[in-house]
Amino acid sequence: MYVVEDKGGAIALMLAALLFLGTWPAVLTLLERRGRLPQHTYLDYSITNLLAAVLIALTFGQIGDGKPNMPNFLTQLTQDNWPSILFAMAGGVVLSLGNLATQYAWAYVGLSVTEVITSSITVVIGTTMNYFLDDRINRAEILFPGVGCFLIAVCLGSAVHSSNAADNEEKLSGSSSNYKCEKEPVEETKDGAINKVVLKDLEDAAVHDSASNIKAESAKFGTAEFLLELERRRSIKVLGSSTFIGLGIVFFAGVCFSLFSPAFNLATNDQWHTLKEGVPHLVVYTAFFYFSVSCFVVAIALNISFLYNPVLGLPKSSFKAYLNDWSGRHWALLAGLLCGFGNGFQFMGGQAAGYAAADAVQTVVGIMKQALPLVSTFWGILLFGEYRKSSRRTYVLLVGMLSMFIVAVGVLMASSGHRKTS
Fold first, then answer.
1. 312: exposed, middle or buried (C-beta count within 10 Å: 0-12, 13-18, 19+)?
2. % of the chain with per-residue pLDDT over 70
3. Domain that holds residue 237
4. Which residues are listed as membrane-spanning (predicted)?
5. Position 293 in a domain
6. Residue 104: pLDDT above 90?
7. Domain count, the chain
């Protein structure tokens, strides 16, 4: 299998992972804002996400000759390593549930706050569990103050969401527009296909008539008119909803994400000694393949169910309607590839940092892994205009949340740079 063993290669892989994993959430958010059903989008995303894992396993996982302790991907498929496979697949289940939940959380809470809160929860729970799984090799006196900073970031993120929701209510109550949140009218045909009344798309001027273009251009980011136009077009209706709905989804996603890292850790390192003597640990390519397969199975099963039994007030659809829905499909497929290759490169970069055996390399790689929410925040603010024309209180909380998150990342990386030697 292919192993990167130098600092430059590890950092290059993590930079690519940073860009890919920070961008695919923005792509799915854009599709939801343009009215595509999240069930349709996630089914497309899941296909290419699995495809990326298969391609990485069959290429990087097969390059060169295998070693007794690091067999190639196809060789390891025939070995008796089911305990580790089950850990990897368990990690895939919780990761799939987390990704699925965040697709709804982005609509309710926003891309920026969702990514920071879920990442912070992931670190708080996942880092604590990995601390004990890895025989406490990080300095607790540095590690756990960093975990405390992440907890503060979670609290500030919740406050940002509540403050922004209050700002939106104030904007809408003072708007001359008729504030009435209604779901898009739908008509279900005999075969179960959904014929939606196409509303004006604020973000895609190509499908607007001239009158709608004028209206869209006059609705600036952050105004009541913008919020109303966005609500009419998007697939998940959020205006007027309780703040606890969005935060509940975000916290559920964060807990799911936090369980993934310890499961993957157990799958590749076998700290509980579940493998038979002489059976090598799963290499990252094999573990990545198995967890991607379980991700795919869970995503397909749940989203096909959600087509006929939707959640959060979404309209019913059908598998036939999904197959016929080509609007934005190429973007959903691209998002799956970005996430799949991003995860693969992240694992390869982390593996390379381990083989480089240099604290500086491990620190740089770790910082880039934790910087993913900052990339998503960039897209959220730049592309979607999140928190435009918000109150000073919201801005102060937002800056505080991001600042505390950055401080927490720095403290956490300092703990990895001061590992115990005995």
1. middle
2. 79
3. 7-416
4. 12-31, 43-64, 84-101, 108-130, 142-161, 238-262, 282-309, 330-348, 360-383, 395-414
5. yes
6. yes
7. 1
